[in-house]
Amino acid sequence: MKLNDLLHALLTYKQVGKGDPEIKTIESDSRAVTDGSLFVCIPGYTVDGHDFAEQAVQQGAVALISEKEINVSVPVILVRDAHRALAELANRFYQHPTKSFSLIGITGTNGKTTVSHLIEQIHRDKKQTTGLIGTINMKIADEEFETKNTTPEPLLLQKQFAKMRDRHVDTAVMEVSSHALTLGRVRGCDYDIAVFTNLTQDHLDYHGTMEEYRQAKGLLFSQLGNTYDTGRKKVAVLNGDDDAAQQYEQMTSAHILRYGIDRPADIKADHISFSANGTRFRLSTPEENRDVKLMLTGKFSVYNALAAIAACLANGLDLDHILNSLEKIAGVPGRFELVDEGQGFPVIVDYAHTPDSLENVLLTVKEMTEGNVFAVVGCGGDRDRTKRPLMAKIATEIADTAVLTSDNPRSEDPERILDDMVEGVKGHYVRITERSEAIRHAIQNAVNGDVVLIAGKGHETYQIVGDQVLDFDDREIARQAIKERKG
Question: What single string gives the DSSP state of each residue in 3-44?
Answer without folding.
Answer: HHHHGGG-SS-EEES---PBP-EEESSGGG--TTEEEE--B-
